[in-house]
Design goal:
29% helix, alpha+beta, 3 domains, Helicase, Ruva Protein, domain 3, FAD-dep_OxRdtase, G3P_DH_FAD-dep, DAO_C_sf, 13 helices, ten-stranded mixed sheet, eight-stranded mixed sheet, oxidoreductase, glycerol-3-phosphate dehydrogenase (quinone) activity
């Protein structure tokens, strides 16, 4: 038995009993919070840092079935992800949109007929409602690829602003009554009679508060095993494998809007994706990882590997001097430790501890961003059953905040008509970040003077106020790298001024 927790003098108790307390503010935790709150459950979610501060903002930013998973015969996972792709395109058209992918064919790859067969399966494992099917390609002298690459294929998937997906999902949860507590760590969770008693610590003030709940969800991602061992005191029944994926951002490699999927001689996949107008996003790697997931970063070997694969395919050659930014995320996969990291399953497992007479614990193991909504639905189904609170699943047709419009082109035209003083570049960014929430952000503005202080790039005080008040932003990092990607465009001195500004105004953050 573990020792009783040391209660600080500032520890207070919350007498309300929640139905569900969720630990982890990544996409899975926020997805469960949204679904459960929408079914009438009383929900509290805590996250030790900012929402989407780890794995969920460090992905390849794709909503995809995972073409490469067909190589490992993961047909169930691919079919499930492809079906979810269509739902997400409908529900979040401001932050998710279709993208075409080009697959160059080279001598070391499987025969062209076999790749075409794989693409046929990819087209038909789930119903396509909005996306075009695959086709063969011939590359000519206008191609950005090396001249010896003359043949390839093209297929459809989708792009997502991963961090905004998390934040908007959290906002949808809050709109349905969930309490969202970023920068709040769970420091102790124990069963007391038929309830969970959970101690949370505000990481800014150090204040601790005790809450009670009928069920507990461990959505800690790469910290899930640590939570079970050191906080929840529950044995790990399925070993987790931590795998790091790293990405680099370089100046734009090609002018087109399509992405490229490059298969190296070692059968690993690297994507080259148009990113933030002027850049290309290149990734990912798959390497086993040990250590603090928050400290993960691009290694020299990973950077050289990504550059090598791109230079083997593209006319334009890159060096390390071309790397403008990099990031790395750690995924917790429930596969065993045997085999290559890239072959480990990206499917998910919901591990339930539910002994008679004791409050249940549900741990989320594995998963990928494309299937988060279905994972959340299955998790909430199980929670409702365990809590004897039947309620119908509802999120498949649920539009995320700001997504209630027909298409981006029409919305952009409407914004330009309503706010003719807004620069076109800003209107386009708002369309792809906030959707119809732009009206909320710009409420009362009649000119650029009403936008307030300019911090550099495309960022003004009005938007910063909005993010503090409605999206839990408290630091410049929250605004520049998760609520937006303006960190690519802003100088470090400007970021410091922004942080000073936010330090004064962060008292307005939502609770």
């Amino acid at each position: 038995m573990r020792d009783a927790p040391v209660h600080s003098p500032s520890l207070a108790a919350d007498d309300d009993i929640h139905d569900v307390i969720i630990i982890g503010g990544g996409i899975n935790g926020c997805g469960i919070a949204m679904d459960a709150a929408g079914r009438g459950l009383k929900v509290l979610l805590c996250e030790q840092d900012d929402l989407a501060s780890a794995t969920s903002s460090r992905s390849s930013k794709l909503i995809h079935g995972g073409l490469r998973y067909l190589e490992f015969y993961q047909f169930r996972l691919v079919g499930k992800a492809l079906a979810e792709r269509e739902a997400l395109l409908r529900n979040a058209p401001h932050i998710i949109w279709p993208m075409r992918f080009r697959l160059p064919h080279r001598p070391h790859l499987r025969p062209a007929w076999m790749i075409r067969l794989g693409l046929f399966l990819y087209d038909h494992l789930a119903r396509r409602e909005t996306l075009s099917g695959s086709r063969g390609l011939r590359f000519d002298q206008t191609s950005p690829l090396k001249p010896e690459i003359v043949r390839g294929f093209e297929y459809s998937d989708a792009w997502v602003d991963d961090a905004r997906l998390v934040v908007l999902t959290a906002r949808a949860a809050a709109q349905r009554g969930a309490r969202i507590l970023p920068r709040t760590a769970c420091v102790d969770a124990r069963r007391v009679d038929d309830l969970w008693q959970v101690t949370l610590e505000d990481r800014q003030s150090g204040q601790r508060r005790s809450y009670r709940s009928r069920a507990l969800v461990n959505a800690g991602g790469p910290w899930a095993a640590d939570l079970l061992e050191s906080v929840i005191d529950t044995p790990i029944r399925r070993p987790l494998r931590l795998v790091k994926g790293s990405h680099i951002v370089v100046p734009r490699l090609h002018a087109g809007e399509e992405s490229y999927i490059l298969q190296n001689e070692d059968n690993r996949i690297v994507f080259v994706i148009p990113y933030e107008q002027n850049y290309s996003l290149i990734g990912t790697t798959d390497v086993d990882y040990q250590g603090d997931p928050a400290a993960a970063e691009l290694s020299t070997e990973e950077g050289n590997y990504l550059l090598h694969v791109v230079n083997n395919h593209f006319r334009q050659q890159l060096t390390r001097r071309n790397i403008l930014w990099s990031y790395a995320g750690v995924r917790a996969l429930f596969d065993g430790e045997d085999g290559a990291a890239q072959a480990a399953s990206r499917d998910y497992l919901l591990d339930v501890h539910a002994q008679h007479g004791h409050p249940p614990l549900l741990s989320v193991l594995g998963g990928k961003i494309t299937t988060y909504r279905r994972l959340a639905e299955e998790a909430t189904d199980q929670l409702c059953e365990l809590l004897h609170s039947p309620a119908r699943a509802w999120t498949r047709e649920a539009t995320l905040p700001g997504g209630d419009f027909r298409d981006q082109q029409t919305l952009l035209a409407d914004l330009q008509k309503l706010y003719p003083w807004l620069p076109d570049a800003t209107a386009r960014r708002f369309t792809r970040s906030y959707g119809t929430l732009t009206h909320e952000l710009l409420n009362g503005c009649r000119s650029m003077d009403d936008m307030g202080r300019h911090f550099g790039a495309d960022l003004y005080a009005r938007e910063v106020h909005y993010l503090i008040q409605t999206e839990w932003a408290t630091t410049a990092q929250d605004v520049l790298w998760r609520r937006s990607k303006l960190g690519l465009h802003i100088r470090s001195s400007e970021a410091a001024v922004l942080q000073d500004f936010m330090d004064i105004r962060s008292k307005w953050r939502p609770t």
